[in-house]
Amino acid sequence: MDNLELRKYPIGNYQEPVEISDQDLDQYIKTIKEFPNKIKYAVENWSDEQLDTQYREGGWKVRQLINHLADSSMNSYIRFKLALTEDSPTIKPYNEQQWAELQDSFSIDIKPAIQTLKGVHKRWVYELKSLTNKEFESTYFHPDQNKNINLRECLAFCAWHCEHHFAHIDNLKKENNW
User: Fold this and answer.
1) CA dist 129 → 32, 33, 49, 51, 126 (Å)
2) Which of 8, 51, 113, 114 could bridge to 63 as Cys pair (CB 3.0-4.6 Å)?
3) In the prediction, which pLDDT does 55 show?
4) Which residues lie below 8 Å from residue 26, measured CB to CB, with a gap of 6+?
5) Is 70 helix (H, G, I), strand (E, B) or coil?
6) Which domain holds residue 29?
7) By three-state DSSP, how is residue 149 classified?
8) How far apart are the C-alpha atoms of 62 and 50, rounded to whole Å?
9) Are 73 and 114 in contact, with CB atoms under 8 Å apart?
10) Which ranges of the chain would DSSP assign to H, the alpha helix?
């Protein structure tokens, strides 16, 4: 893996698990539960200048990344709820890059995004802990991927996504001795 690839994917590309055990689900839920505080503590004392630093050349600013995480978590939580209440609904993809260029991602203080992460993740974890194995097999249809995705698979990806972006922030922090 070259340096740019390593900076894009510091924990590696997402690899869909062949099998997802109940223990794996527990670990994914723990990741979702702990993520908002992990992000908050990583950046809570950063200046605007630090928050407006790209985590890699060609990448988003940290401020955009944190707002992206709030957007992504809201969308993921809604996808879970749709899959649990409808028969394999088709979800609405969104253009993450364009969302990250909107003013509420580009220039706003990060506190609302952190609050959103805390609230959404608290509700999401509460729901996740109540799901049966059968409910985890609920699916939604992702039109961009042209396939049904069950909630086990979705949760595995969401946990990876959290760790993936945390690594971007953590690596930037280490590189700059912040």
Assistant:
1) 11, 11, 39, 33, 5
2) 51
3) 94
4) none
5) helix
6) 21-175
7) strand
8) 8
9) no
10) 3-8, 22-43, 48-51, 62-85, 96-101, 103-106, 111-130, 133-136, 151-175
Q: Please, what is the Cα angle at 68 between 39 and 124, to 5 degrees? A: 65
Asked whether residue 105 is assigned to any structural domain, the reply reads yes
Rounded CA-CA distance 67/69 in Å is 5
The Cα–Cα gap between 178 and 170 comes to 10
Residue 9 in any domain: the answer is: no
CATH of the domain at 41: 1.20.120.450
- Both structure tokens of 173: 């922090």
Strand partners, 54: 61
- Structure token digits, residue 128: 């996740």
Is residue 5 assigned to a domain?
no
Q: How long, in residues, is the chain?
A: 178
Amino acid of residue 52: D
What's the pTM value of the predicted model, to 2 decimals? 0.95
Q: Tell me the per-residue pLDDT of 39-67, one tens digit each, with 9 for 90 and over.
A: 999 999 999 999 999 999 889 999 999 99
Domain count, the chain: 1
Q: Is residue 124 part of a domain?
A: yes
